[in-house]
Amino acid sequence: MSVNWTEIFIDTLKFLVGLFWGNSHVPSKFFFPIVGDLWMLLCLYWLISALKMKALKSRESFARRLSYVFPVAIGVFLIFNPRTHYSWLGIRFAPDTTALAVTGVVATAAGVAFAMWARYILGENWSGVVSIRQDHELIRIGPYRTMRHPIYTGMLLAFLGTALVVGEVRALLGLLIVTLGFYRKARQEEVFLSREFGVGFESHAKHTGMFLPKIFA
To answer: Of 20-24, 78-82, 212-216, which one has max mean pLDDT?
Structure first.
Protein backbone atom coordinates (compact mmCIF):
# COMPACT_ATOMS: atom_id res chain seq x y z
CA MET A 1 0.00 0.00 0.00
CA SER A 2 1.45 3.35 -1.05
CA VAL A 3 1.79 6.20 1.41
CA ASN A 4 0.11 9.49 0.55
CA TRP A 5 2.69 11.92 1.87
CA THR A 6 0.60 14.92 0.83
CA GLU A 7 -2.26 13.90 3.10
CA ILE A 8 0.17 13.17 5.94
CA PHE A 9 1.74 16.61 5.53
CA ILE A 10 -1.63 18.36 5.47
CA ASP A 11 -2.91 16.38 8.49
CA THR A 12 0.25 17.26 10.41
CA LEU A 13 -0.22 20.96 9.68
CA LYS A 14 -3.89 20.70 10.67
CA PHE A 15 -2.78 19.24 14.00
CA LEU A 16 -0.31 22.09 14.54
CA VAL A 17 -2.98 24.61 13.66
CA GLY A 18 -5.33 23.07 16.18
CA LEU A 19 -2.58 22.93 18.78
CA PHE A 20 -1.42 26.53 18.48
CA TRP A 21 -4.48 28.23 17.03
CA GLY A 22 -7.26 26.68 19.10
CA ASN A 23 -10.62 26.43 17.37
CA SER A 24 -9.93 29.09 14.77
CA HIS A 25 -11.90 28.75 11.53
CA VAL A 26 -9.67 31.24 9.69
CA PRO A 27 -6.61 29.29 8.46
CA SER A 28 -5.40 32.20 6.33
CA LYS A 29 -4.75 34.28 9.46
CA PHE A 30 -2.55 31.52 10.86
CA PHE A 31 -0.60 30.78 7.68
CA PHE A 32 -0.11 34.33 6.41
CA PRO A 33 2.73 35.09 8.90
CA ILE A 34 4.46 31.94 7.65
CA VAL A 35 4.51 33.13 4.05
CA GLY A 36 5.62 36.52 5.35
CA ASP A 37 8.64 34.84 6.98
CA LEU A 38 9.44 33.08 3.71
CA TRP A 39 9.46 36.42 1.89
CA MET A 40 11.67 37.90 4.61
CA LEU A 41 14.10 35.02 4.06
CA LEU A 42 14.21 35.84 0.35
CA CYS A 43 14.80 39.54 1.07
CA LEU A 44 17.61 38.70 3.49
CA TYR A 45 19.29 36.48 0.91
CA TRP A 46 18.95 39.25 -1.67
CA LEU A 47 20.60 41.79 0.63
CA ILE A 48 23.51 39.48 1.44
CA SER A 49 24.10 38.40 -2.17
CA ALA A 50 23.92 42.01 -3.38
CA LEU A 51 27.11 42.78 -1.43
CA LYS A 52 29.18 41.19 -4.18
CA MET A 53 28.43 42.30 -7.74
CA LYS A 54 30.48 43.26 -10.78
CA ALA A 55 31.05 46.92 -11.58
CA LEU A 56 28.30 48.67 -13.53
CA LYS A 57 28.81 49.17 -17.27
CA SER A 58 25.45 50.59 -18.38
CA ARG A 59 21.91 50.82 -17.04
CA GLU A 60 18.43 51.99 -17.92
CA SER A 61 17.06 55.47 -17.30
CA PHE A 62 15.10 56.31 -14.15
CA ALA A 63 11.92 56.82 -16.18
CA ARG A 64 12.14 53.34 -17.68
CA ARG A 65 12.77 51.90 -14.24
CA LEU A 66 9.54 53.41 -12.94
CA SER A 67 7.62 51.64 -15.70
CA TYR A 68 8.01 48.33 -13.85
CA VAL A 69 8.80 49.40 -10.28
CA PHE A 70 5.50 51.24 -9.94
CA PRO A 71 3.21 48.35 -10.96
CA VAL A 72 5.19 45.83 -8.89
CA ALA A 73 4.90 48.10 -5.85
CA ILE A 74 1.14 48.41 -6.36
CA GLY A 75 0.78 44.65 -6.74
CA VAL A 76 2.78 43.92 -3.60
CA PHE A 77 0.73 46.50 -1.69
CA LEU A 78 -2.52 44.80 -2.74
CA ILE A 79 -1.28 41.36 -1.75
CA PHE A 80 0.32 42.13 1.59
CA ASN A 81 -1.62 45.09 2.99
CA PRO A 82 -4.86 44.02 4.73
CA ARG A 83 -6.15 47.59 4.42
CA THR A 84 -6.80 46.89 0.75
CA HIS A 85 -9.60 44.58 1.91
CA TYR A 86 -12.23 46.95 0.56
CA SER A 87 -15.49 46.36 -1.29
CA TRP A 88 -15.11 43.77 -4.05
CA LEU A 89 -11.36 43.55 -3.43
CA GLY A 90 -12.11 41.73 -0.20
CA ILE A 91 -14.31 39.07 -1.79
CA ARG A 92 -12.87 35.57 -1.43
CA PHE A 93 -12.22 33.68 -4.64
CA ALA A 94 -11.95 30.37 -2.74
CA PRO A 95 -12.99 28.96 0.66
CA ASP A 96 -10.70 29.76 3.59
CA THR A 97 -9.62 26.20 4.22
CA THR A 98 -6.49 24.69 5.72
CA ALA A 99 -5.86 22.65 2.56
CA LEU A 100 -5.82 25.75 0.36
CA ALA A 101 -3.66 27.67 2.83
CA VAL A 102 -1.18 24.80 3.06
CA THR A 103 -1.03 24.65 -0.73
CA GLY A 104 -0.25 28.36 -0.73
CA VAL A 105 2.53 27.97 1.83
CA VAL A 106 4.10 25.10 -0.13
CA ALA A 107 3.92 27.08 -3.38
CA THR A 108 5.44 30.13 -1.69
CA ALA A 109 8.28 28.07 -0.22
CA ALA A 110 8.95 26.39 -3.58
CA GLY A 111 8.93 29.73 -5.39
CA VAL A 112 11.28 31.33 -2.88
CA ALA A 113 13.68 28.38 -3.07
CA PHE A 114 13.65 28.43 -6.88
CA ALA A 115 14.26 32.19 -7.00
CA MET A 116 17.17 31.85 -4.57
CA TRP A 117 18.68 29.06 -6.66
CA ALA A 118 18.36 31.11 -9.85
CA ARG A 119 19.89 34.12 -8.08
CA TYR A 120 22.80 31.99 -6.90
CA ILE A 121 23.45 30.70 -10.43
CA LEU A 122 23.41 34.25 -11.82
CA GLY A 123 26.10 35.26 -9.31
CA GLU A 124 27.82 38.61 -9.73
CA ASN A 125 26.02 39.28 -13.01
CA TRP A 126 22.80 40.08 -11.15
CA SER A 127 21.47 43.61 -10.75
CA GLY A 128 18.37 45.02 -9.10
CA VAL A 129 17.82 47.31 -12.08
CA VAL A 130 18.07 46.66 -15.82
CA SER A 131 21.78 46.96 -16.53
CA ILE A 132 24.91 45.38 -17.96
CA ARG A 133 27.89 44.66 -15.69
CA GLN A 134 31.57 44.79 -16.50
CA ASP A 135 32.61 41.39 -17.93
CA HIS A 136 28.94 40.44 -17.98
CA GLU A 137 28.33 36.76 -18.74
CA LEU A 138 25.35 35.24 -20.53
CA ILE A 139 24.36 32.51 -18.08
CA ARG A 140 23.02 29.35 -19.70
CA ILE A 141 23.29 26.77 -16.93
CA GLY A 142 20.93 25.60 -14.21
CA PRO A 143 17.42 27.02 -14.67
CA TYR A 144 18.77 29.37 -17.36
CA ARG A 145 19.08 26.39 -19.72
CA THR A 146 15.32 26.34 -20.26
CA MET A 147 14.14 29.85 -19.34
CA ARG A 148 15.56 33.34 -19.56
CA HIS A 149 14.18 34.81 -16.34
CA PRO A 150 13.90 32.03 -13.73
CA ILE A 151 14.20 34.47 -10.83
CA TYR A 152 10.90 36.01 -11.87
CA THR A 153 9.47 32.52 -12.36
CA GLY A 154 10.25 31.64 -8.75
CA MET A 155 8.97 34.92 -7.42
CA LEU A 156 5.73 34.68 -9.40
CA LEU A 157 5.16 31.16 -8.03
CA ALA A 158 5.77 32.55 -4.54
CA PHE A 159 3.33 35.41 -5.19
CA LEU A 160 0.76 32.89 -6.43
CA GLY A 161 1.19 30.86 -3.25
CA THR A 162 0.80 33.97 -1.12
CA ALA A 163 -2.32 34.93 -3.07
CA LEU A 164 -3.79 31.51 -2.27
CA VAL A 165 -3.13 32.06 1.43
CA VAL A 166 -4.72 35.52 1.34
CA GLY A 167 -7.57 34.11 -0.70
CA GLU A 168 -9.11 37.45 -1.67
CA VAL A 169 -9.64 39.12 -5.04
CA ARG A 170 -7.16 41.85 -4.10
CA ALA A 171 -4.39 39.23 -4.01
CA LEU A 172 -5.27 37.90 -7.47
CA LEU A 173 -5.34 41.44 -8.83
CA GLY A 174 -1.99 42.13 -7.16
CA LEU A 175 -0.54 38.97 -8.72
CA LEU A 176 -1.69 40.07 -12.18
CA ILE A 177 -0.18 43.54 -11.75
CA VAL A 178 3.13 42.13 -10.46
CA THR A 179 3.23 39.76 -13.44
CA LEU A 180 2.79 42.66 -15.85
CA GLY A 181 5.57 44.57 -14.05
CA PHE A 182 7.94 41.60 -14.26
CA TYR A 183 7.10 41.13 -17.93
CA ARG A 184 7.88 44.78 -18.60
CA LYS A 185 11.22 44.51 -16.79
CA ALA A 186 12.11 41.24 -18.49
CA ARG A 187 11.50 42.76 -21.93
CA GLN A 188 13.78 45.67 -21.10
CA GLU A 189 16.46 43.31 -19.82
CA GLU A 190 16.34 41.40 -23.09
CA VAL A 191 16.91 44.59 -25.06
CA PHE A 192 20.11 45.18 -23.08
CA LEU A 193 21.23 41.55 -23.37
CA SER A 194 20.57 41.52 -27.11
CA ARG A 195 22.73 44.61 -27.57
CA GLU A 196 25.52 43.14 -25.45
CA PHE A 197 25.60 39.56 -26.73
CA GLY A 198 24.01 39.85 -30.18
CA VAL A 199 23.73 36.49 -31.94
CA GLY A 200 24.59 34.64 -28.73
CA PHE A 201 21.51 35.97 -26.97
CA GLU A 202 19.31 35.49 -30.02
CA SER A 203 20.28 31.82 -30.10
CA HIS A 204 19.61 31.53 -26.37
CA ALA A 205 16.19 33.17 -26.78
CA LYS A 206 15.20 30.73 -29.54
CA HIS A 207 15.67 27.75 -27.27
CA THR A 208 14.25 29.10 -24.02
CA GLY A 209 11.00 30.53 -22.70
CA MET A 210 10.70 33.81 -20.85
CA PHE A 211 9.23 32.57 -17.56
CA LEU A 212 8.53 28.93 -18.44
CA PRO A 213 10.49 26.31 -20.40
CA LYS A 214 9.91 26.43 -24.12
CA ILE A 215 7.99 23.39 -25.26
CA PHE A 216 9.08 23.52 -28.88
CA ALA A 217 12.72 24.71 -29.15
So the answer is: 78-82
